[in-house]
Design a protein that fits this description.
- The longest helix has 29 residues.
- This protein has about 300 residues and is of the alpha/beta class.
- The chain is about 45% helix and about 15% strand.
- It has a single domain, classed as Rossmann fold.
- It is built from twelve helices and nine strands.
- A seven-stranded parallel β-sheet has the order 3-2-1-4-5-6-7, sandwiched between helices.
- Strand 2, helix 3 and strand 3 form a beta-alpha-beta unit.
- It is globular.
Length: about 300
């Protein structure tokens, strides 16, 4: 069966670019592709994490070209693609993972904060796709571009408004380019994660949030995820790597312009939470939860 799936996926020997492929989710993506027999060019702002990922790819016997840079720096990203063009005879897969933000109300954000969020979560993706198309065309067999967005691109995300807007722009840009490049068999799709444990996700929240969780008992810590995620637990990085393998491979040859939500069901739930104390899955807490939270008019 594995031989059949390998032949249908047709990934072995292909070449992939992973922007933000050195640490966290990007490292998981890079390693998943390497294990499938793909050679890689990766770049990341975190030199230490990237060195670890580079060594792991090399240990798997795959060719890897690693570059330390900030994807939001247009000149640095151009230089990276120049190097890819010089080092590899072909390009088949591009994964734009890099991104990030911090929780911040719009009226507290400076113009520099806003410009940073737009460039880091949308602007560089446009540049990466534009540069990648020229290299994908050299292979004359189409290709797959996978852009990471977020669940926040599909809902009102208070405190993350610019980030959510930029990621929504990435999702619609992806759809538009899927139409534009359809006849060339260059497919573009999005992956929209939600809660996945990574350094970037942790950095998005103020320090007091993390400090609050450390004060919780071990019994209490997983309860929020169990209420929020229908699956009951956060998707691991490996689940995102699996989604990339599907969208990068020939198993998804006729999938283009789509967003794949890898979130354990949170997008499907659309605000329905599994409240405790007998309330079950409803958008707002009912009597069981409210009674526990607001005894005598004050939070319990």
């Amino acid at each position: 069966m594995s031989g059949y799936l390998d032949s249908r996926a047709n990934l072995h020997g292909k070449v992939a670019v992973v922007i933000g492929g050195g640490g966290g989710i990007g490292a998981g993506v890079s390693l998943a592709l390497a294990r499938a027999g793909v050679d890689l060019a990766i770049c990341d702002i975190d030199a230490e994490a990237q060195a670890t990922t580079e060594a792991a790819i090399d240990a798997l016997g795959r060719r890897v070209s690693a570059h330390v840079l900030d994807a939001a720096d247009a000149d640095a990203l151009d230089a990276f693609y120049d190097a890819v063009e010089a080092e590899f005879p072909r390009l088949d897969i591009v994964v734009n993972v890099a991104g990030g933000t911090k929780r911040q109300p719009l009226m507290e954000a400076s113009r520099a904060d806003i410009a940073r969020d737009v460039q880091r979560n949308y602007g560089y993706v446009v540049q990466s796709v534009q540069r990648a198309i020229l290299l994908l065309r050299r292979s004359e067999g189409g290709g797959s571009i996978i852009n990471f967005t977020t669940i926040e691109a599909h809902r009102g995300a208070a405190g993350f408004s610019v980030y959510a807007g930029a990621k929504a722009a990435t999702a619609n840009f992806t759809r538009s380019m899927a139409v534009e490049l359809g006849k060339e068999k260059i497919r573009l799709n999005c992956i929209a994660p939600d809660t996945t444990f990574s350094k970037g996700n942790a950095a998005a929240m103020p320090p007091e949030f993390a400090e609050g969780f450390t004060r919780l008992s071990g019994h209490a810590q997983p309860k929020g995820l169990q209420m929020y995620i229908p699956y009951g637990e956060a998707p691991p990085v490996e689940a995102l790597g699996d989604a990339v393998l599907f969208l990068a491979s020939d198993l998804s040859t006729f999938v283009s312009g789509m967003t794949l939500h890898v979130d354990g069901g949170t997008m499907a739930a659309a605000g329905f939470l599994e409240w405790p104390f007998g309330d079950g899955f409803v958008p707002m807490p009912l009597a069981g939860t409210l009674e526990r939270m607001y005894r005598d008019g004050d939070p319990a």
